[in-house]
Amino acid sequence: MKGLSHETGGWGPKTRVGVLFWESLVETVGLNLDREVSLIEERAEMTRQNVVVADTKSGINVAITMTVSNSSLFTKAVKKTRETQGGCINIPPKKVGGGARINAWVDSMRASSPTRVKSAASLSDQSSWMLRHPSALNMFEQIIEASKGKQIVMFLDYDGTLSPIVDDPDRAFMSDAMRTAVRELARYFPTAIVSGRCRDKVYNFVRLAELYYAGSHGMDIKGPAKGSKYKKETKAVLFQPASEFLPMIDEVYKALLEKTKSIPGASVEHNKFCLSVHYRCVDEKKWSMLAQQVRSVLQQYPKLRLTQGRKVLEIRPTIKWDKGKALEFLLESLGFGNCTDVFPVYIGDDRTDEDAFKILRDRGQGFGILVSKIPKDTSASYSLQEPLEVMDFLKRLVEWKQLSMRQAIQGKVCNCNLSKWIKDLVLCLNLLIMPKCSA
C-alpha cells in the first residue's frame, strides 16, 4: 500500500514504516473536530476491513506501510505502536492538518481497491476467513433449518450484489436472469432493495413494482404502490428522514461538478439525499487532487459527512440513519417489527451494508451475507463471491419454498382423502348394524 512520500531532505530515501503514528499533530485547518475524528475513524475502519499488506523484505505482515515525509506537519513520532486484533491498527482520534487529512483520504481510497486487497491476502488468510464466513450456498441446508417456522424477509443491495461493479455507474444493469430470480423471490418472500443510489434510479434498473425500495442509503424509502400482501393495511409507505437537506445536497452537487471537471475520469452522481464521487476511472496519481477538491467543498458544509465505498466517496447528511435503520423501518412497515418469528436475510457487498449486518447480529434474528471474493472484517455470518452466486442462492430459496408448498398441499390432500375414507367406512358400518325394517 502506498503512503506518504518525500524523496529529499533529512529523511533521505523513502523510509518504509509499518505502524507509526504521531502523538502531536498541528492544529486543524478547515473542518471541525467532529469531522476530523470521523475521517480518521473512517480510515481506521477501512484499514480494519480491507488491508493486510505483506512486507516481503521482513517477512512480517503489517496493516499499513507508509513512506514518512520530512514535513513540518509531523512534529513528534510515537515509538509505541498500537494494534488491534488481526494485526490492524487503531488510529487515535487526533486533529490533523489539511495535508495529513488528504493523505489519509488517499490511503483509504487505495485501500478500497479490491485488486490491491486481493493481491495482499494470502491463501491461509482466505481459508481462515472462509471458516468464519462460509459460503451461503454450501450452508444452505443449515440456513433453511434455522428459518423453519419463521417468515423470511429479503433485503438486497444493488451494485455488486444484483449487478456487477462497472466503470460507468449509469451502466450497472442487472441481467434478465437476475431480474427473473428477484421477481420469483418476491412472489414468496417480502423483498426490499436497499442501495446508496437514488431510489428512482435503482427502480429504473430493477423495474419490479412489487418490491420495497430504499435509496440514498435508506434515506428514501417507498413501498409497493398497491401496498403489501404481507400487511393488512394498504397505505403506501414513503419515508424520507433527510428531506431538509435537499437544498444543501443540490448546492454541494453543483460545487463538486465544477471542482472535479478538470480531473479526467471523475464523476459526481446525485442520489437525491446523498452524493457519490466516483474515482474508479481516475488515474491514481490524480486521487490526491480529487480528495483535495472534495475537501475544499465539504469544509463549508459541517452538516455533511464523508464515507467511502468501493472506489467511491460518499457524501451524506450527518443524521443517525443508515441501511441498518432502514432495515428496521422496513420490518416495522411490513408488520414484523416486534415479531419473534421473522427471519431477515440481508445480502450486500459494500461497507455501508455493515450497518445492516450489525443490526441483525444485535437483534439475534436472521443473518447477513457479504458478497466478496476477498477477506474482509464483517458482521455478516455467511459469504457469496459474486452476483452469479447471489442469483444461485435466490433461486435455491425459491425452489425450496416451492417444494415445501407442494409438500404441504400433498399433505392436506392425503389428510382429506383419509378423512373421506374414514367417513365412508363409518357409513358402511352403520348400514351393516342398522336393524332391518319389518315388512
Automatic annotation (TrEMBL):
Pathway: Glycan biosynthesis; trehalose biosynthesis. GO terms for molecular function: trehalose-phosphatase activity. It is an enzyme of class 3 (hydrolase). Keywords: Hydrolase, Stress response. It catalyses: alpha,alpha-trehalose 6-phosphate + H2O = alpha,alpha-trehalose + phosphate. Its EC number is 3.1.3.12. One of its GO terms (biological process) is trehalose biosynthetic process. Transmembrane segments: none annotated. Gene3D superfamilies: HAD superfamily/HAD-like. The keyword Hydrolase applies. Its cofactor is a divalent metal cation. It comes from the Eukaryota. Belongs to the trehalose phosphatase family. Removes the phosphate from trehalose 6-phosphate to produce free trehalose. Trehalose accumulation in plant may improve abiotic stress tolerance. This is Trehalose 6-phosphate phosphatase.
